């Protein structure tokens, strides 16, 4: 099953999902986003948003991130304890 999924490009579906979420939340340019469970970043909100300030939280080591952009900051940690995020 996994081999089959690798051949399907889901980028367009992920972009449409992001756009639907942004519309539903009425996301504006000055809004800040907390992306809990952002993974390595390639499939996160940051992959589709270069305008808003985004803080991604996940358990992956920072050196495994796939996203490097000025509006994205990664915090390695447990989302049940967000004291380290400011």
How is the topology of this model organized?
Blueprint: H1 2-6, H2 11-25, E1 32-36, E2 53-58, E3 72-76
Parallel strand pairs: 1-2, 2-3
Unreliable stretches covering 5 or more consecutive residues: none
Strand content: 15-25%
- Described by the principal axes of the CA atoms, the overall outline is globular
Distance between the termini: 40 Å
**Fraction of residues in helices?**
10-25%
Tally of separate helices: 2
Biggest β-sheet strands, sense, barrel: 3 strands, parallel
Query: What class do helices, strands and sheet pairing give?
Result: alpha/beta
Which strands sit side by side, in order, in the main sheet?
1-2-3
**Oligomeric state of the chains present here:** single chain
Strand tally is 3
* N-to-C order of helices and strands: HHEEE
| Average predicted local confidence, pLDDT | 87
Verbal overview:
With 86 residues, this protein is α/β, with parallel strands linked by helices. Helix content is 23%, strand content 19%. The protein is built from two helices and three strands, in the order H-H-E-E-E. The chain is globular and about 35 Å long. The mean pLDDT is 87.
Write a brief caption for the model:
The protein has 86 residues and is of the alpha/beta class.
